[in-house]
Amino acid sequence: MPEVVVRRLAVYLRILREADLSDNRFVSSAELGEWAGVTPAQVRKDLAMFGEFGKQGVGYQGRNLRDELARILNTDETVAVAIIGMGELGAALARYIQRRHAGNREYPFRAVALFDVDPAKVGVSVEGVAIDHLDALPERVREQKVKLAVVSVPAAAAQAVTDRAVAAGVRAILDFAPVKLRVPPHVRVHYADVSLELHQLAFYL
Amino acid sequence: MPEVVVRRLAVYLRILREADLSDNRFVSSAELGEWAGVTPAQVRKDLAMFGEFGKQGVGYQGRNLRDELARILNTDETVAVAIIGMGELGAALARYIQRRHAGNREYPFRAVALFDVDPAKVGVSVEGVAIDHLDALPERVREQKVKLAVVSVPAAAAQAVTDRAVAAGVRAILDFAPVKLRVPPHVRVHYADVSLELHQLAFYL
């Protein structure tokens, strides 16, 4: 499936997860398109790839569509996430993910393992999860079956922790460090560097 | 300048800001390229767009190049940032930006204005900055000359706060809400939705 389609499906799912879908509510491709910033035709085309769950003139049954999209995007069950690097950003992400998960069962991500090398941080609990030393990563990742990791360490350490995470079975990485990571072909990396985005935006001021 | 070039320049600048550039250190296009994940030829081509500040066989004088890139990307002086929406993510971003700025003069962003509509949050101080009510946004944005805003409100509120920010003079927005924003042509929007990235990555598991 093309990356842009995956992205749009994720947007539709995020929208449906925030929408009020009570009372057997139907959602039209026009509504979804307006929120997602795409045409109704694009919405229908994207969703038609997975079968016909819309009805002409009525739209999509909201909860069905949400559950279908969750299944397609592998988030119909809770997804265990490891966060590697518990500096300002890592700690903020851990709190964000945990509280979202605690507050809403629909939110599928849960930070189950947190890592750092700083002895002052190891053992400290963040939203109920104790920070482990990085050396415990292989064992913890294997026992918790973590496939998705957030890398929020300084640039100089990013490749080394990535190598360890990949060796332990991680298959998708959200990288907040300002470096391009080298990974084997079966591992997917997305980049989400807040400071980098701010730097790019500043150019346009 | 093409968007991809702006992005690469921002990556080079981030790398140089984290690197040890003491002792009049030179940085080669090979070094920069390795960190940034591009070829040395690409690095040289990107930087040659702004004049010849490299020397054949020696590379770039690190501090000069960093300062030149900062000037090109409008981050040679502190950039005032407003954060609209002080939920979990907004608060985390405020702390992250303030602490980075406090800890390192090289970090150019500073959160000077924080907004929310929740009476329980208004007046609360986050890293030394008091949260204002959203109604104060036009006045605060104008008096602080804020051009860059982070939108971290729920999806349903994102367009309305964006309209108010744009009317007050904001020209660049980093949007963490899962909706596409409609803005006039002179306003630039980048999207940085952590949960959306996690959803996309989960697809590849």
Outline the structure in words.
- Two copies of one chain form a homodimer.
- The first copy, chain A, has two domains: 3-72, Winged helix-like DNA-binding domain superfamily/Winged helix DNA-binding domain (Arc Repressor Mutant, subunit A); 79-200, 3-Layer(aba) Sandwich (Rossmann fold).
- Helix content of chain A is 44%, strand content 20%.
- Chain A is built from eight helices and ten strands.
- In chain A, helix 1 (3-18) packs across helix 4 (62-72) and helix 2 (29-36) packs across helix 3 (40-48).
- The first copy, chain A, starts with a helix and ends with a helix.
- The model of chain A has no long low-confidence stretch (mean pLDDT 90).
- The interface between A and B is large, with 60 and 61 residues.
What is this structure, in a nutshell?
The structure is a homodimer of 205-residue chains. Chain A has 205 residues and is α/β, with parallel strands linked by helices.
Q: What's the average pLDDT of chain A?
A: 90
Structural class of chain A: alpha/beta
| CATH domain class name of the largest domain in chain A | Alpha Beta
| Tally of individual domains of chain A | 2
User: What is the CATH T-level topology of the largest domain in chain A?
Assistant: Rossmann fold
C-alpha-based Rg of chain A, rounded: 19 Å
Question: How large is the count of helical segments of chain A?
Answer: 8
CATH superfamily of the largest domain in chain A: NAD(P)-binding Rossmann-like Domain
User: How much helix is in the residues of chain A?
Assistant: 40-55%
**In percent, how much strand structure appears in the residues of chain A?**
15-25%
Instruction: Give the overall silhouette of chain A.
Output: globular
Largest interface: A-B, 60 and 61 residues
Ends of chain A: how far apart? 36 Å
Order of SSEs of chain A, N→C?
HEHHEEHEHEEEHEHEEH
**Architecture (CATH level 2) name of the largest domain in chain A:** 3-Layer(aba) Sandwich
Uncertain ranges of chain A: none
Assembly annotation? homodimer
Strand runs of chain A, count: 10
How would a crystallographer describe the biggest sheet of chain A? 7 strands, mixed
Main β-sheet, spatial strand arrangement of chain A: 6-7-5-4-8-9-10
